[in-house]
Amino acid sequence: MIDGSPDALRDDITPLSELKARYGVYGVTGNHEYYFHVEQWLPVFEKLGIVMLRNEHRTLSVNGAELVIAGVPDLTAQQFGEVGPDSEKALEGAPDGTRVLLKHRPSRASGNTRVDLQLSGHTHGGHLFFLKWLIASFNGGLIEGLFDMDGTKLYVSPGTGLWPGFSIRLGVSSEITRINLRSKKDV
């Protein structure tokens, strides 16, 4: 979500406080939160009303059904002496309802953890059309879009187009993704 210090980005991140959702606003740390002192950012996200999930989950009751939102920190956490992503731990004790995993980097959930939908980013859609093949090679071919990973739907958002603080996209789309979940009986 960020690429700089809380002081430098204060005005830029303030609009995030306007994010509203009936069941809450959730997020996970990406690699850049660690590059810019994650311990300073976590309280800022909390003040903005974003629940940051770090190898944990929340169970929501939606129209009488249980929906599990789980999240894991980015792999970069380990380089900074913190616990890395552990989707099994994040879903420990979670009910068997629909499970959504927030994971910054697009790769499978660890272990035998059952996840119905995983939402990821990190790839910026490849940045530049002529680099897509290279970015894909570092991310298991998962650059952007919807994938079926042995029954788990994985959506990789290309993001909004900024890194590091300026647009460096050429021939690569940007997006703010809206995912609408519906029960199978409503489809």
Structure description:
It is a single chain. This protein is an alpha/beta fold. The protein has one domain. The protein is built from five helices and eight strands. The protein has helices at 6-13, 31-35, 38-47, 87-90, 132-138; strands at 25-27, 50-52, 56-62, 65-72, 98-103, 117-120, 145-149, 152-156. A six-stranded mixed sheet has the order 3-4-5-6-8-7. Helix 4 (87-90) links the parallel strand 4 (65-72) and strand 5. The mean pLDDT is 88.
Topology:
Layout: H1 6-13, E1 25-27, H2 31-35, H3 38-47, E2 50-52, E3 56-62, E4 65-72, H4 87-90, E5 98-103, E6 117-120, H5 132-138, E7 145-149, E8 152-156
Parallel strand pairs: 1-2, 4-5, 5-6, 6-8
Antiparallel strand pairs: 3-4, 7-8
Could you tell me the number of beta strands?
Answer: 8
Helix content: 10-25%
Low-pLDDT residue intervals, each spanning 5 or more residues: none
Question: Please, how many helices?
Answer: 5
> Strand count, sense and closure of the main sheet?
6 strands, mixed
Q: Separation of termini?
A: 32 Å
Beta-strand fraction estimate? 15-25%
| Neighbour order of strands in the largest sheet | 3-4-5-6-8-7
Brief description of this entry?
By secondary structure, the protein is of the alpha/beta class. It has helices at residues 6-13, 31-35, 38-47, 87-90, 132-138; strands spanning 25-27, 50-52, 56-62, 65-72, 98-103, 117-120, 145-149, 152-156. The protein has one domain (56-186).
